Amino acid sequence: MNDSVTSSMVRALPAPHRQQLMDLAREVSFEPGARLFEEGGRADRFWIVRTGTVALDMRVPGRRAAVIETLGHNQLVGWSWLFAPHSWHLGAEATSPVRAYVFDAADVRALCGSDPAFGMALAQWVGDVLAHRLRSARTRLLDLYAPYGSGSLL
Predict the structure, then answer these.
(1) SS3 label, residue 101
(2) In what order do the strands lie in the sheet with 98-104?
(3) What InterPro entries would the database entry show (predicted)?
């Protein structure tokens, strides 16, 4: 796992909320090359990776999909399920054998609606994941396109 502690549900959600979420989990596995979802498709579930790696990718006209980020142990795969219109902003593919927990988005959103404290904790967790990923993407873009990379100024 990278330095994003906020991506770990285990550390982000209080124990009672974590248990509520895990009560909705099912175990799944994917072989390398399996597509979890496609950009623009209906976002109706999400995963927490137990083992293996998943690449998030973006379509590039006339080229292969560009890998945006690679996710692994304890990381959240998919956030589009939480925000209308519930469609994927990226695609995702297993790059190694993956074992994960999968969650049905409608069930989780229903739980958020019936238990506001759970909903707030879950939204905070997903928001923290998004904020970390945006910071990471910014750093990668600076490394690629800024004159002197993302290093500190002296």
Answers:
(1) strand
(2) 26-30, 98-104, 45-51, 76-77
(3) cNMP-bd_dom, cNMP-bd_dom_sf, Env_Response_Regulators, RmlC-like_jellyroll
The beta strands (E) that lie in 14-135 are given as 26-30, 35-37, 45-51, 54-58, 66-71, 76-77, 91-94, 98-104
d(CA 25, CA 29): 13
In this structure, the number of other CB atoms found within 10 A of the CB of residue 25 comes to: 15
At 65-98, the pLDDT tens digits run: 889 899 999 999 999 999 999 999 999 999 999 9
CATH number of 5-145: 2.60.120.10
Q: For residues 45-62, b (16+ Cβ closer than 10 Å) or e, as one string?
A: bbbbbeebbbbbbeeeee
pLDDT tens track for 117-132: 999 999 999 999 999 8
